[in-house]
Design a protein that fits this description.
This protein has 231 residues and is of the alpha/beta class. It has two domains: 68 residues, Roll (Ubiquitin-like (UB roll)); 136 residues, Cell division protein FtsQ/DivIB (Rossmann fold, 3-Layer(aba) Sandwich). The strands form two sheets. A nine-stranded mixed beta sheet has the order 6-5-4-7-8-9-10-11-12, with helices on one face. A three-stranded mixed beta sheet has the order 1-3-2. Helix 4 runs parallel beside helix 5. The longest helix is centred in the N-terminal third of the chain and has 19 residues.
Length: 231
Amino acid sequence: MIRYVLPFLLFLILVYIFLFSPIFKIRAIEVSGNQEIEIAEIINKFDYQNIFLSTEKKIKTSLMGKIPQILDLDVSKNLIKRIVKLIIREREKAGIVCQADKCFFVDNKGIIFEEAPQTSGSLILLIKDYSQRTLELGKEIFNEDLMGSVLEIRNDLDAEMDIKTLSFDISTYPLKELKLVTNEGWYVLFDAERDLKSQLRVLGAALKEKIQNRKGLEYIDLRIENRIYYK
């Protein structure tokens, strides 16, 4: 009986040493690359203590799940010195999305990642969401392709036609149509289920060839394929 008990006890002792002994405890966490995220926040949300049990994949998954501002994260470990090194890449603010009195920053991939102040004007991309869906940090408002198209539309109208975009308005989700409100008082309706870049080309041609005088213009409707309606 003893010959079975002793190995079992030895096994438990070794497990205890491996899991709880200060020999394997992480001594330091070094953070670099962060600009807006505080180092204290990153360290406070670091869940692991054992240098061996805290794998690079586990650390990355945990921190990126808890801190939506992190776009990517490189993790390396020095087992001898028991140091974990984190290189942070933060999300860039491509615009702001607002619902009622709550606003969030969104990156160029369409991911909501940080609370934002109320805003107006054309200095930053503004998306107004009236769809009644719940917006959550770390989730997307648009997929990456759609977000890229929205940014391109805004930039092209500004660069090519000197038309400023006040907001992109969403009325339903899943997204069926997109309303662009201009600083000149008129708006554009896009079919969000078709390629927005092709609709942008149609819009550009119409503004150059058919609607050169925009005084009194109310709207341009691009929702019918191969057709353009305006008033």
